[in-house]
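job 3f2a | input accepted
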Amino acid sequence: MFIKRKEMDMAGKRKKYTAEEKVRILRLHLVERRAVSDICDEIGLNPNVFYRWQKQFFENGAAAFEQTPTRGKDRRMRRLEDRNDQLAKKLVQKDEVIAEIMASHIELKKSFGEI
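job 3f2a | predicted structure (115 res):
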């Protein structure tokens, strides 16, 4: 009787596959036309897991064709966010200074008896 064993890492835990590894495994079946049972036996993967990956792959396949921000846009966005944070800090600082000036102004008015 053949007993399938799960692929384990060095600590004896189940192997966690990266997205790239999952695609590579799916590709063996979809492109190279290898049998799912052969692939699963070879790497110690439950066929149900393989089919779940395949389902996720096809359900999310449209995401591969969606335009994503380029690295330059990400960098620009980070710079803008940093600049926004700097300006927000300056605004808080400015508000604190104005509050101090207003408090001094009120004290002066009180001392001259205007209030």
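job 3f2a | The helical segments are 19-30, 36-43, 47-59, 71-111.
job 3f2a | closed
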